[in-house]
Amino acid sequence: MSDFLPYTVKDLERSLSTIERQIYSRIGDLEITAWRTSEPVPFDQRCSGQELHLRVGDKWGDLFDCAWFRFRGEIPGAAAGQPVVLLLDVNGEMCVVDDAGVPVRGLTTGTSVFDFSLGLPGKRVLPLSPDARGGEPIEVWADAGCNDLFGNLQGNGTVREASVAFCHAETRGLYYDFEVLLDSLAVLPPLSARYQEILVALNETASLIRGEFSAATVRQARAILAPALAKRGGDPSLRISAIGHAHMDLGWLWPIRETKRKGARTFATALANMERYPDYVFAASQPQLLQWMKEGYPELYGRIKQRVAEGRLEPQGALWVECDTNLTGGESLVRQLLHGHRFFRDEFGADVRYVWLPDTFGYSAALPQILARAGMKYFSTQKLSWSLINTFPHQSFHWRGIDGSAIPVHMLPEETYNSPAAPRSAGKIEANYRDKGLSEHALMVFGIGDGGGGPGEEHLERLARLQNFAGLCPVQQEPAAAFFERWAADAARFATWSGELYLERHEGTLTTHGRNKRANRRIEQALRELEWLAAWAEMSCGVPYPSGRLDAIWKEVLLYQFHDILPGSSIKRVYDETTPRYEALLAEVETLAAGRGEALAGHIDTAGLARPVAIFNALSWERTEWLIVGDGWRRVAVPPLGYIVVDAADVAEPTHEVHAAPDRLENDRLCVRFGEDGAIVSVLDKPAGREVIASGERANRLAVYHDPGDAWDFPMDYAESAPRIMQLVAAEARVDGPRALLTQTYRLGDSIVVQEISLVAGSPVLAFAARATWREREAMLRVAFPVTVRAEEAAFEIQFGHVRRPTHRNTTWDLARDEVAGQKWADLSQRDYGVALLNDCKYGHKVKGHTIDLNLIRSVPYPGPQLVRDQDVAPGEPHHGYTDQEEHVFSYALYPHAGDLVAGDVIQAGYQFNVPLRTVETVGHPGAAASRGSLLQIDARAVIVETVKQAEDGQGWIARLYEATGSAVKCRVSFTVPPREVSKVNLLEEPLATLELQGNTVELAFQPFEIKTLRWQ
Ligand SMILES: [Zn+2]
After folding, report:
1. N or C terminus of the chain with fewer C-beta within 10 Å?
2. Distance from the CA of 248 to the center of ligand 1, in angstroms?
3. Which SS3 state, helix, strand or coil, does residue 953 take?
4. Side-chain half-sphere of 757: how many Cα atoms within 13 Å?
5. What pLDDT is attached to residue 10?
6. Mean pLDDT of 728-737
7. What are phi and psi of 818, to 5 degrees?
């Protein structure tokens, strides 16, 4: 040992770099040819693009260009007997393929502009020959994308490196020995003997290699470090399970088509590393990604299946994609589980019973029940570690939902799904694990993710040294499912968290890319109606249920609910592609639904009617509404999940007591007064004799706040600065049958909002149907209704129920939940009276004090049209564009009601605002069906049928019901077409119990917010 002071850690880091530079010795260059295309082409068309002959330093493409690269050369004679590798970096991502075009390894640019904390994703080494003879020709083909892991590209698509090199295996071994020991110093107590022992060994090694770097000194250095590496830990108080992973954003800073290629690169790398590291276990979530592998890379998929069968590759999490859970509807969440679980079961024989959502922006309080009723046992995430205000108190806990169901949750203590699997990772897990006294187990998820890639050699070399490293918690690789089983043994001791897992961040994603969100709401409602009509049409008319098409349509809809697509945090190209697809899907669903409506109408006895029209109601209660039938308005009462036939020739237009003027809309229920600026100054509830709008305040002002945020976030204090108010430029009133209408046109700069405000005879729903031409920048359009209601909590619809949230900011937890998710409505009620705000496609709500506020449009720059961040644009330069600068269509409605939200039928009003009645014109004909009919009837208003569909296995029919008010309810369900058998199944349609059938009826008892699924045939 030297008499001098030990090296500092910085000196030792320099020694580590010295070792790293000696791992590979370049011995030759490769000839580079590329064939560039703007979109990917398959291997057999690899030479179809523009041919480029390239050298290192040459540019080959722009962002998202594609190219097939060919690298040619010869192994130099000097390499005889040595392991030879190629070093390839084209400043993009590449997938190296074999002679048949099958992926063998993913390579990634050494630079990434987004996140250097992941470490340099330097997958640039392609092992070529473990034992070269010299003189062998080299020809390697690779499919390249001109993007890095995070879409954006630093270096402009230029070739960085293409060479032949020796790999000095001993030096590589020394590098990882040294790196792991050095990193452990960041965790071990400096005064411990263990720390000092390692420091001394590193010092000796550093001195040695500084004197001479040769094969002999490398061997000697490893011998010096070996005893320190070999020290074993004792009886640990915490064990870490490690699982390899590549978090894959299915569309984000790159188009969806690139994700498919990212998948091939990632799986090829994982499979290649499995050959080299026998204890390596890799987990892949999202069946959608595997489905793409099956379609696009069948040979690779075959090898994936083989590794799954061996237990080395774990099918992970039961959701079809890692979806959003604030905006995604209830039935969609069920289908995410249904299709996800079925894929893994059918393709791999795997029964996955846990849910994996590491990156989604907050978790709905409906999830514990949905998971539990789908037979899921565990849930995992880490995202709440991103909250900006409060520290979530647990990482192993029970999560209780609105119905009381609870599910054990593990929140990764390392707070990342991109662990470097280094000593500092083990150190962070131990230090940060808030429930370590209760549980001896924690999960580490290692690899490089977001843009895929997954674990590299570095992760696996480190883990080989950390299995039982004295001074650190032992780390063993194993499937996440095995971890959960072991960890759950301590679950009885875990604390419980009740209600939503609110992410105190990313509230802007409830609003950004409004057009896309509207499309999701519309397709969810359209599929709901189609499935009910299609089930009924097959049952009663023999029209085949379109199960194949529904399967495909649903899976595409589920894909677009991915946690960067539906929330609006992807680049514009993603939405440019989803928009026409949603249009096509909506058109197809409408065609299928219209056909079923016609078939059902054709079965009804309409003989003797001059112009028969069948009116269908997809909701599970009778609705009485005004609508246009033929040439005139009719008020019709349509049975639940049923129809009624009316004769359009038989119109006796009544006179309606409705009035419309630029300053007043009035019917028998409400009198609404508008100020000169167009804002509402008064809403008088006539039967209740109450003023609804707070005295001296104005409602429905179109307020534009400065929003300097991005797709995810806006400043919490945005409302501290006064908004700009859109100016009324025209107001036109008219009466159309039973409807009083006021059309207001507002302007601000180049933006225009036209609102058609309407009030229909007999209804207290004041509806606002808006069309906007939006041109603002850094702007957030909101509308607010200050009302005369006093309540400490407001209610918001979520999937299969609702949640209550405080209307005050008493604690930091209340303060943080300022902008919150709601589905079809938000409601502020006191015991005797309340006001709801309904919507047809908006989600970002704020109810504080006595004001109900809704976020309508956000136009923000990043990751907008050109993927630019504000700081990347020089002052004075034109910006490349903002989100949502386009045409918008949306509706909302003010709904004052007597009593609370249940007495006031707010839940039903929300559905009715989103699900119009369907009219089908037919002719007079005989038929088997009566002029009024219903598929199902329920005798309790609190129980709602969310879904009627064919069973996934084609055996019988499914109805999904839930208690919507938060009460214990007994009810009877009556089937119009007599069933042979009715049973209870879970959300995956697995049998639970047979129900007693009394005639055509079964009796059900619901607990508050309980979901029940029935199968009948
Ligand atoms: Zn993600």
Report:
1. N
2. 6
3. coil
4. 29
5. 84
6. 97
7. -85, -55
φ, ψ of residue 695 to 5 degrees: the values are -60, 130
Q: What are phi and psi of 310, to 5 degrees?
A: -80, -10
pTM above 0.85, yes or no: yes
Give whole-number Cα distances, 840 to 118, 362, 584, 916, in Å: 41, 22, 20, 11
Is residue 554 within 8 A of residue 588, CB to CB? The reply is no
At 415, give phi and psi (nearest 5°): 60, 35
Distance separating alpha carbons of residues 396 and 409, to the nearest angstrom: 6
Asked whether the beta carbons of 269 and 456 are under 8 A apart, the reply is yes
Question: Which residue in 543, 451, 616 sits closest to 112, CA to CA?
Answer: 451
Task: Report CA-CA distances (Å) from 268 to 106, 274, 301, 388, 789.
Answer: 6, 10, 10, 37, 60
pLDDT, tens digit (0-9, with 9 covering 90-100), for 890-940: 999 999 999 999 999 999 999 999 999 999 999 999 999 999 999 999 999
Alpha carbon of 322 to ligand 1 centroid (Å) = 8
Spacing, Cα 312 to ligand 1 middle (Å):
24
CB-count exposure of residue 1008 (10 Å: 0-12, 13-18, 19+): middle
> What is the 8-class DSSP label of residue 637?
E
Please give the Cα distance from 414 to 407 (Å, whole number): 21
Q: Hey, which residues does 919 pair with through a beta bridge? A: 615
Q: What is the largest CA-CA distance in the chain?
A: 112
- Residue 870 confidence (pLDDT): 46
Provide the H-helix boundaries in 443-513: 457-465, 480-487
3-state class of 673 per DSSP?
strand
Question: Which value, in Å, is the radius of gyration of the alpha carbons in the chain?
Answer: 32
Catalytic residue among 65, 359, 564, 710, which?
359
Please tell me the distance between residue 709's alpha carbon and the centre of ligand 1 in angstroms.
Answer: 19
- Whether the CB-CB separation of 985 and 958 falls below 8 Å is answered with yes
d(CA 821, CA 825): 10
Burial label for 701, CB within 10 Å (0-12, 13-18, 19+), is buried
Q: How far is the CA of 259 from the centre of ligand 1 (A)?
A: 12
Of all helices (H) and strands (E), which one includes residue 543?
A: none
Spell out the residues 6+ positions from residue 987 whose beta carbon is closer than 8 angstroms to its own: 334, 337, 338, 370, 373, 374, 375, 960, 1011, 1013
How far apart CA 872 and CA 863 sit, in angstroms, is 12
| Strand ranges (E), 456-565 | 475-477, 495-498
Cα distance between residue 229 and residue 242, in whole Å: 20
On the 0-12 / 13-18 / 19+ scale of CB atoms within 10 A, 1015 is: buried
- The burial of 689, by beta-carbon neighbours within 10 Å (0-12 exposed, 13-18 middle, 19 or more buried), is given as exposed
Residue 371 contacts residue 340 (beta carbons within 8 Å): no
Which 8-state DSSP code applies to residue 922? -
Distance 449 CA to ligand 1 centre (A): 8
Going from the Cα of 51 to the center of ligand 1, the distance in angstroms, rounded, reads: 36
H helix or E strand, kind and range, residue 347: helix 330-348
Q: What is the whole-number distance in angstroms between the Cα of residue 564 and the centre of ligand 1?
A: 7
Nearest CA to 582 among 557, 555, 565, 564? 557
How many other C-beta atoms can be found within 10 angstroms of the C-beta atom of residue 144?
A: 27
Identify the residue whose tokens are 């007994």.
Answer: 970
Q: Is 235 a catalytic residue?
A: no
What residues have their beta carbon closer than 5 A to ion ligand 1?
249, 359
- Please say if the pLDDT value at position 869 is more than 50: no
The structure tokens listed for 705 are 């706040």
Categorise residue 577: left if φ over 0, alpha if ψ from -120 to 50, beta otherwise. Answer: alpha
Contact call for residues 922 and 610 (beta carbons, < 8 A): no
Report how far ligand 1's centroid is from the alpha carbon of 417 (Å). Answer: 10
Instruction: Locate 413 and state its tokens.
Output: 């203590």
* Residue carrying the six token digits 């949306």: 890
- For 264-306, the pLDDT digits (tens) are 999 999 999 999 999 999 999 999 999 999 999 999 999 999 9
